[in-house]
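Hey, I'm writing a tutorial for new members on how sequence and structure tokens pair up, and I'd like a real worked example in the thread rather than a made-up one. If someone can provide the structure for the chain below, I'll link this post from the tutorial.
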Amino acid sequence: MAVSSHTSVKPRGGVVTLADRCPLFGQRRPLVVYLCGVVALGLVVLAFSIAASDVRGTDVLTFTALMLCGAACIEATRRLGMPAGVSRDLLSAWWLPVALLLPPVYALLAPIPLQILLQKRVRETVVYRRVFSSAAIGLAGYATSTLFHLVVGDPSALTAGAGGPILMAIGCAVVFTVLNTALIAVAAHTADPESSWREVLWDRESLTLDVVELCLGVLVTITCKLGLPLLLLALPPVVLLQRSLLHAQLQAAARTDAKTGLLNAAAWQREADTEIGRARRTGETLALLIIDIDHFKRVNDNYGHLIGDQVLIGVAAMLRSQLRDYDVVGRFGGEEFVVLLPRTDTVEARRVAERLRSRIARMAVPVDETMLSVTVSTGIAIMSVHGDDLIELLAAADLALYRAKELGRDRVCLPAIPPARPPGAQPASG
């Protein structure tokens, strides 16, 4: 699941607003309605399920054992650390057995203690995200549990070796994954309507991880049904897989800017150097853009850093959605972004920069009862025209950006190139 880092909020003009006290109310109104609706539905279903359920000691014991295993995985995560940008875990290995082996009410309850542990022991984030994640996972688990018990009936059939119940368990695990992903994807798309559904649903890596979680959850379910003490044998492999997954995500996080998800400055420079070397060998054209948000300090001063962060995230998302997969996009620091465009000449670079400028100008961030818009200024440098290496291109694009700021901002500029002297002409004196 995706989790943002904790962000401090600067009150507007010293006045603490409702959005400052509760970040949820600083989001888009459709998003607030959707999140509150999912949480309310989860609470209603939980209340009815508790009223209609009988508590059995064996169910409570199984639930407690699975939650303790989940807590052990969380503790292993805490010891390694989980900075912002790391978003996947293997807790489904413990949620799925709860959904498949126990009455549906336990599937609604299971995410709550584990989300609390994640918030307290791993990384603190805005509370409404934890609450929504608990409700989304709980509702997906409730639907999965209801379907499995309706079709299979007795979970003991899983240990008989028959293919039917095991295939049904796999199918229900797929249902759990699809429902949970759909609930979160709708929230992500509502938060950023400009993003494509492909971005908020599955890519190849997330689909692979979902398959691993699905298989792991079904295996833990069968192991648990064979006997609770066998969970002691299942726990170490799950913890090891969790640590391996976390290590891979930490490596990826070291390359990305935690706030925007773009490449950080160091990673961008490495990839840009590689692209420039390739262009130099092949003789292809290449363009570099420096994009700066106009008057960004005013946004932070007038609306608070939380809204400033939303502006940065929105601009980054717009850049990703408007550029090609092989374009190299990064955050260079503060409100400045850099883009390397392989196989792009002056005309195409200006066309791309103008498109980005106009799309960002139409973007809006909700602030209380109004919408906040920003503009950007862009400097362009072309390889072999304004420089032959990364340092020269950055310097030329920075001069072009400075020129755009001087000319009034919200525009695209190239470096001012002095006119070429006629052959044999002498430089002007003085």
